[in-house]
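Input/output pair, single chain:
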Amino acid sequence: RLSLTEYQGMLIAALFFIVEKFLRVVLVLFPVGYVIDAMPEWVLSRLKLPQISIAKKEAEREFLDDFGSFAEIMSFWRYPFEDHLVETRDGFILGTHRITGPRQLSTNGTHPNQNVENGSSTSTSSLNKPVVLFWHGFMLSSECFVCHPDWVNILPFRLAEAGYDVWLGNSRGNKYSYKHIKYAPDDRRFWNFSIDEIANIDVPTTIDYILKET
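Output:
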């Protein structure tokens, strides 16, 4: 026969199993953002994630579709960022964004940002951090990674909160890489490229630039 202590252990193990199954079903039926938004403020505060609830409420008041640039999205979420210009060997100027730290929940609504053109950044907030580079797909831009209305579903922000140095690149020809040292966009020679140049020139050149900066 089992002892009383062994029966208690079996009962506790069974309760843990039931709770785990219940939580698994809840997470399958409801999105993570919905579960977090339903949490009371004191729970989020104890979890040290009050910015999630605040961001969710802000996203309900405004539409991200109304934002016209990466900078406006960063202003809305109050993340510090930098704009970098990377020149390729064939003359394209690639706009590259860098999220330099966690969300700034300042009362004045301002956010620190800088513009850096082919030079060393003066920011020290991202030194000695692990680096992550995001690169968009065909006919997109860096905005596609930060335009979700739910904070918990924006991976660059989650990584910035976790202490990563987050970079977002842009391929030649999109709205942030619309310049060339010789050709204007209305010149046919400006568009004389394919996905091969994006893969073989744009991405490696941006990586080399990031390595120099970090």
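The beta strands are 81-87, 92-99, 113-117, 131-135, 165-169, 179-180. The CA atoms of residues 24 and 49 lie 22 Å apart.
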